[in-house]
Amino acid sequence: MRQVGTDRVKRGMAEMQKGGVIMDVINAEQAKIAEAAGAVAVMALERVPSDIRKAGGVARMADPLIVEEVMNAVSIPVMAKARIGHIVEARVLEAMGVDYIDESEVLTPADEEFHLLKRDYTVPFVCGCRDLGEAARRIGEGASMLRTKGEPGTGNIVEAVRHIRKVNAQVRSVTGISEDELMTEAKVLGAPYELLVEIKRLGRLPVVNFAAGGIATPADAALMMELGADGVFVGSGIFKSENPEKFARAIVEATTNYKDYQLIAEISKELGSPMKGIEISTLPESERMQERGW
Amino acid sequence: MKIGVLALQGAVREHVRQIQTLGCEAIEVKSMNDLPGLKGLVLPGGESTVMRKLLDRYGLLEPVRSLAKKGVPMFGTCAGLILLAKEIVGCEEAHLKLMDVVVERNSFGRQVDSFEVEISIEKVGKDIPAVFIRAPHIVSVGPGVEILAEYDGRIVLAKQGQYLGCSFHPELTGDTRLMEYFIEMAKEIHPSTLAKTNRI
């Protein structure tokens, strides 16, 4: 019997993206540049996160026309963002045939208590996480892929580093503790018990975990791979840099060959200036996107 | 026996796990230095456009082609099948151009149309779980290509001498029968003897 939207089909799609770079784009032209540079997928948006920060106000799902334009422009998968808990935005994107939905803290949340029940959809979802509790809750709701939250639109890698280290340290800890300690661990982390049992058995998360939120240079991308990310999302980093084409290619190469430091040195030469970046401590807590999500 | 997995991008670890489960040594192939000594090469699922770019960038396209000319068996799954094909619908230039098949990308639709199903393959086994993710299919085959499986009226698994190509992802399941079939192929085809027959 032919079955669509199974865990294997939804998680499998993310498995195929491993080792790759997913790039934020705001129109068909940028999507083509991203595809030509070797992006494994593009995220269709109305504004990249750094512009969302600048614009302020409420950030919503992109205009469906932009998403459609991007879908028609490239043959690689197209992702799009829906607001946390916004059932209808997610259903609209699914109806349009988007390949993956990011239930994203970059947009203004529509629900401050509940996330989407992602298991109910045929389209797969990716969600942000800062620790294993958050990661496991999202998987519990049906997310098929995870990413670190980092601090989007800042060009500052420090938060993404914090989040990937935290998640991986907690995965190691769950893998190492004895089975009779798992229930209390589930209580402490705020994680579904069954998922911790699965993580302990696998020795890793049951879905891929990409890095996102603050990657601004090829070295940043390579750092996240070194720390155990399965791939990277680059948001504002590419099209806010001086030479997006060259920048995009360099990030793809650094991600694939994250241990080849000579190569990273070569490809980092004369890239032009990366996006300017924001020091996190200067961001008031109300402007930290990573605080969104529950 | 060493079986390589092209490790530029995509579902590498799943293939590695299956190869190891079957008692072979799995080699992740990232550069041409990883090619000598391989008795078979798996081209995994992923994004074919990305893998092609990386094959070019790391100078792997020709070395993989010459490995094939030496008779080393190759198994392409999904994007890997696209890499193997001689012709891709709507694409001017194919990639490795080794297997005499014409393939069409994303031919079952977008991700929301992706599916899994069990298919029976006479030469491999019954009820094999097949996961199709934005999958390609084989539109037509040249002489000497054996069609091993069809689904929904489309060719999804074919073999031509040393080459095995499939639309779906056996690596995403715990079922290793198709990988076993490939490893048997690799055992039967000794690159040295095949190279000789090629010369004749």
TrEMBL record, chain A:
<dbReference type="GO" id="GO:0042823">
    <property type="term" value="P:pyridoxal phosphate biosynthetic process"/>
</dbReference>
<dbReference type="GO" id="GO:0006520">
    <property type="term" value="P:amino acid metabolic process"/>
</dbReference>
<comment type="similarity">
    <text>Belongs to the PdxS/SNZ family.</text>
</comment>
<keyword id="KW-0663">Pyridoxal phosphate</keyword>
<dbReference type="InterPro" id="IPR033755">
    <property type="entry name" value="PdxS/SNZ_N"/>
</dbReference>
<dbReference type="InterPro" id="IPR011060">
    <property type="entry name" value="RibuloseP-bd_barrel"/>
</dbReference>
<comment type="subunit">
    <text>Homohexamer and homododecamer. In the presence of PdxT, forms a dodecamer of heterodimers.</text>
</comment>
<feature type="active site" description="Schiff-base intermediate with D-ribose 5-phosphate">
    <location>
        <position position="81"/>
    </location>
</feature>
<feature type="binding site">
    <location>
        <position position="214"/>
    </location>
    <ligand>
        <name>D-ribose 5-phosphate</name>
    </ligand>
</feature>
<feature type="domain" description="PdxS/SNZ N-terminal">
    <location>
        <begin position="7"/>
        <end position="212"/>
    </location>
</feature>
<dbReference type="InterPro" id="IPR013785">
    <property type="entry name" value="Aldolase_TIM"/>
</dbReference>
<comment type="pathway">
    <text>Cofactor biosynthesis; pyridoxal 5'-phosphate biosynthesis.</text>
</comment>
<protein>
    <recommendedName>
        <fullName>Pyridoxal 5'-phosphate synthase subunit PdxS</fullName>
        <ecNumber>4.3.3.6</ecNumber>
    </recommendedName>
</protein>
<keyword id="KW-0456">Lyase</keyword>
<dbReference type="GO" id="GO:0036381">
    <property type="term" value="F:pyridoxal 5'-phosphate synthase (glutamine hydrolysing) activity"/>
</dbReference>
<feature type="binding site">
    <location>
        <position position="153"/>
    </location>
    <ligand>
        <name>D-ribose 5-phosphate</name>
    </ligand>
</feature>
<feature type="binding site">
    <location>
        <begin position="235"/>
        <end position="236"/>
    </location>
    <ligand>
        <name>D-ribose 5-phosphate</name>
    </ligand>
</feature>
<dbReference type="InterPro" id="IPR001852">
    <property type="entry name" value="PdxS/SNZ"/>
</dbReference>
<keyword id="KW-0704">Schiff base</keyword>
<comment type="function">
    <text>Catalyzes the formation of pyridoxal 5'-phosphate from ribose 5-phosphate (RBP), glyceraldehyde 3-phosphate (G3P) and ammonia. The ammonia is provided by the PdxT subunit. Can also use ribulose 5-phosphate and dihydroxyacetone phosphate as substrates, resulting from enzyme-catalyzed isomerization of RBP and G3P, respectively.</text>
</comment>
<dbReference type="GO" id="GO:0008615">
    <property type="term" value="P:pyridoxine biosynthetic process"/>
</dbReference>
<dbReference type="Pfam" id="PF01680">
    <property type="entry name" value="SOR_SNZ"/>
</dbReference>
From TrEMBL, chain B:
<feature type="binding site">
    <location>
        <position position="105"/>
    </location>
    <ligand>
        <name>L-glutamine</name>
    </ligand>
</feature>
<dbReference type="GO" id="GO:0004359">
    <property type="term" value="F:glutaminase activity"/>
</dbReference>
<feature type="active site" description="Nucleophile">
    <location>
        <position position="78"/>
    </location>
</feature>
<dbReference type="GO" id="GO:1903600">
    <property type="term" value="C:glutaminase complex"/>
</dbReference>
<dbReference type="GO" id="GO:0005829">
    <property type="term" value="C:cytosol"/>
</dbReference>
<dbReference type="GO" id="GO:0042823">
    <property type="term" value="P:pyridoxal phosphate biosynthetic process"/>
</dbReference>
<feature type="binding site">
    <location>
        <begin position="133"/>
        <end position="134"/>
    </location>
    <ligand>
        <name>L-glutamine</name>
    </ligand>
</feature>
<comment type="subunit">
    <text>In the presence of PdxS, forms a dodecamer of heterodimers. Only shows activity in the heterodimer.</text>
</comment>
<dbReference type="GO" id="GO:0016740">
    <property type="term" value="F:transferase activity"/>
</dbReference>
<comment type="function">
    <text>Catalyzes the hydrolysis of glutamine to glutamate and ammonia as part of the biosynthesis of pyridoxal 5'-phosphate. The resulting ammonia molecule is channeled to the active site of PdxS.</text>
</comment>
<keyword id="KW-0315">Glutamine amidotransferase</keyword>
<comment type="similarity">
    <text>Belongs to the glutaminase PdxT/SNO family.</text>
</comment>
<keyword id="KW-0663">Pyridoxal phosphate</keyword>
<dbReference type="InterPro" id="IPR021196">
    <property type="entry name" value="PdxT/SNO_CS"/>
</dbReference>
<dbReference type="GO" id="GO:0006543">
    <property type="term" value="P:L-glutamine catabolic process"/>
</dbReference>
<dbReference type="InterPro" id="IPR029062">
    <property type="entry name" value="Class_I_gatase-like"/>
</dbReference>
<feature type="active site" description="Charge relay system">
    <location>
        <position position="171"/>
    </location>
</feature>
<keyword id="KW-0808">Transferase</keyword>
<dbReference type="Pfam" id="PF01174">
    <property type="entry name" value="SNO"/>
</dbReference>
<protein>
    <recommendedName>
        <fullName>Pyridoxal 5'-phosphate synthase subunit PdxT</fullName>
        <ecNumber>4.3.3.6</ecNumber>
        <ecNumber>3.5.1.2</ecNumber>
    </recommendedName>
</protein>
<comment type="pathway">
    <text>Cofactor biosynthesis; pyridoxal 5'-phosphate biosynthesis.</text>
</comment>
<feature type="binding site">
    <location>
        <begin position="46"/>
        <end position="48"/>
    </location>
    <ligand>
        <name>L-glutamine</name>
    </ligand>
</feature>
